Amino acid sequence: MCIRDSYWDMYARGGMIGLTRGVNKNHICRAVLESITFQMTDLLEAMQDDSSIKITDLRVDGGASVSNIMMQIQADMIGCEVNRPKNVETTALGAAYLAGLAVGVWKDKEEISNNRVVDKVFTRQISQQKRDALYHDWKRAVERSFAWIEK
Question: Quick one: angle between helices 128-143 and 68-78, nearest 10?
C-alpha cells in the first residue's frame, strides 16, 4: 500500500509515534502542526506528480495560517515560498470580490489582485537532507497506521 492509499484506509487509525518520557505539551502541540504540514506536503507532492506542474510558491490563508511556526514548517517541507496575506480570512472576501466583479465594482481580476497585501513570506530554512529525513520519518509513522483495525 502506498502513502496516498493510507488516507483512504478505513481500518487505519491515528497515533502518536516516537514519544519518550521527556515529551511535554509543547512537543504535542508542535507535532499537531507538523502533522498538518506533512499531510499538506503529501497532498502537494501528489498534485505535482499528477499534473507535472512544479509548485513555485504557495499562497495561504485561513485560521491556521496565522501560525508562524506552522508556515515555516510548511516552507521547510515544500521548499518554496509560503506567502501569507495580511487578511487571512479570504473566503468571505473572495465571495465579495466575485460579487463586485459581477456588478462592475471591479473592472477585472487584476484590479482585485492588486488589493492583496502580503504580511509575511516564509522561505526554507533547513537543508534538503534534513527535510528528507523528517519526511521519511513522517512516512514511516503513517505506514504504522495502516490496517490498524483488523477486518
Answer: 100
